[in-house]
Fold:
Amino acid sequence: MQEPPKRKRLPHMLPAWVDRSDPLFVTICCKQRGLNSLAYPNVFQTIHQTLRIYEEAGKLKLFSLTVMPDHIHMIARWNHAIGLGQTIKSFKGIIAKRHDIDWQQGFFDHRIRSSGELRAKTAYLRANPIRAGFVKIEADWPFACLCDDNG
Structure:
């Protein structure tokens, strides 16, 4: 039996020419997809509080956060001097330790290049629970926050 192709690992380093103040859309997934590991009040509270502590420490500036049952979407401006990869790794470690979450290796990030793209990604993030059929209106999903809509 032939082994399936392996996923190519992409670097999370920014080229020198990239505007480091651009926010990033980041997705972090649980290893076990399709299982509710994250959409609980106590887990959401830990995720949100940890990101706020990171914000106070100057690691990021959180704009939007949506926690789904098996993944997290967030939009934030990151402190690249600390390192995006290191920040995500430590964040995942805290949540894993406190709530026994088994994460997929790595994460997905997409640089947001304009205010129009920021609005589109924010709308996508906020509508995720609606598309998944969990709620009819975004305000009814308790595991999300629009932290800073000014970008």
Remarks:
- The CA atoms of residues 42 and 138 lie 20 Å apart.
- The chain has a mean pLDDT of 89.
- Residues 24-146 form a domain with the Alpha-Beta Plaits fold (CATH 3.30.70.1290).
- Helices lie at 41-56, 84-99, 115-131.
